[in-house]
Design goal:
The chain has helices spanning 20-30, 34-44, 48-56. By secondary structure, the protein is mainly α. The chain has a domain at 20-56. α1 packs across α2 (34-44). The model has no long low-confidence stretch (mean pLDDT 86).
């Protein structure tokens, strides 16, 4: 049986939306689209916990 290593982002503390691999990783990690992830990073900065908080904010009308 071949075991595959779990892929992780190079830096697990920040979200780099300019790196295609990192963008795909973080979108999958947070369970959101890449577009939504980009919007959250632009609103909250690249710090992963801040992005997570931004994504978990209740949507306003």
């Amino acid at each position: 049986m071949i075991r595959r290593a779990k892929k992780t982002a190079t830096d697990t503390r920040s979200v780099d939306i300019d790196d295609a691999y990192a963008l795909e990783f973080w979108a999958s990690e947070f369970g959101v689209s890449q577009a939504r992830l980009k919007a959250a990073v632009l609103a909250a900065g690249a710090d992963a916990p801040s992005v997570k908080r931004e994504l978990n904010k209740p949507k306003t009308a």
